[in-house]
């Protein structure tokens, strides 16, 4: 088999899935092959016959190639309208392709591939030629799906599925243009050998089938746009009599549709699932009991453990699911620029004002009370539950407001000041603080502090 004619394709035509469809590479290759040394004078019908595409597909491809691309504004093809000098009747347009720029990346491929492969396979063949011969690397199925993408339907613009990319590779291999060594490359990638000519006979450009005995190309699956075979399960190709009740097709009295069988023969017998780890619950004589937690082990970041230090004794009584929810809430507040010490003090103060009888469900209290972001009645950002951040002093603005709740139910009411919680002042900057200390130095001037007056 001779070498035949070859065409140089710009790489941007292959990888730019936004500006060009899959069939545009076939149209470009045929126009450039016919315009060697002169303008291409083939009509749209003749180009469609050469490439095996429909007339409308060729017209749309020529329109996209002759217009500036939406991505970079490059025109790949130009045309010149002609008319007869004497009669003035229109003649076939003359078309040509732009010369490649200096240093522009390109792909050399045979014209025979554009004549025999469909649009998606031809684009994939050009991509594999570049990555194999120029970049010397093997593509993953995900990279192939990203490079091709859907060009129509509700998934337009989305990458192809990895299974679809695998089916396209198999189809291209069956056509004889590549050879796959599956999972023989880097990190179990397919090693692909791209051929300059098909390794077995393929359909001729005029549609003539190959001689008998030539293996037929594989049929693509449902992801490629064609209906799957019977072994895929859909669409149905024969009637399933097991789903047809031939003995109980009578309509109920008064008409309507029978919703269930009258004899209830389909109902399954009770099964004892005691000890079965796959069951959702454990069936006992008293009833169904909840299965113990079998999820992943708990893992929290150090910043979350520091915030939860005031309730460390309650954590063993909280389920991992609730504790993860509390950790996500703490992380959300910390990501929103909340200071870890402020969140720690908020949990500490609300724990001190909560009676032990109200901690029967510590997980519910942690999510609904300790971590609740209640707005302050006075509107100050530094006021939390009637106390000023960093110092713990009662908020004067809250004290000046009239009471809105009954006594004993006000969330923002500060605890009474006693001798054990008396305020002290920093020797360096006179900033008030309340023992016991969490930091040995002042947070404002870093002067050493003491727990006693």
Give a description of the structure:
This protein is of the alpha+beta class. The chain has three domains: 6-194, no CATH class; 302-403 and 411-417, no CATH class; 418-453. The protein contains 13 helices and twelve strands. The protein has helices spanning 11-15, 24-34, 44-51, 55-66, 111-116, 119-133, 141-148, 162-174, 302-307, 320-335, 340-352, 362-370, 396-400, and strands spanning 6-10, 77-83, 90-97, 106-110, 178-181, 191-194, 281-283, 288-290, 383-384, 387-388, 424-425, 432-433. Strands 1-4 form a two-stranded antiparallel ribbon. Helix 2 crosses helix 3, helix 3 (44-51) packs across helix 4 (55-66) and helix 10 runs parallel beside helix 12 (362-370). It is elongated, with a radius of gyration of 38 Å. The N and C termini lie far apart (101 Å). Mean pLDDT is 75; it is low at 215-240, 280-288 and 406-420.
Helices and strands in order:
Elements: E1 6-10, H1 11-15, H2 24-34, H3 44-51, H4 55-66, E2 77-83, E3 90-97, E4 106-110, H5 111-116, H6 119-133, H7 141-148, H8 162-174, E5 178-181, E6 191-194, E7 281-283, E8 288-290, H9 302-307, H10 320-335, H11 340-352, H12 362-370, E9 383-384, E10 387-388, H13 396-400, E11 424-425, E12 432-433
Shape: elongated
Care to count the β-strands?
12
- Rg from C-alpha positions? 38 Å
Mean pLDDT across every amino acid position: 75
Structural class: alpha+beta
Sheet-strand content, in percent, reads 5-15%
Number of helices: 13
Helix content: 25-40%
Which strands sit side by side, in order, in the main sheet?
Answer: 1-4
Largest sheet: 2 strands, antiparallel
Distance between the termini: 101 Å
Low-confidence runs? 215-240, 280-288, 406-420
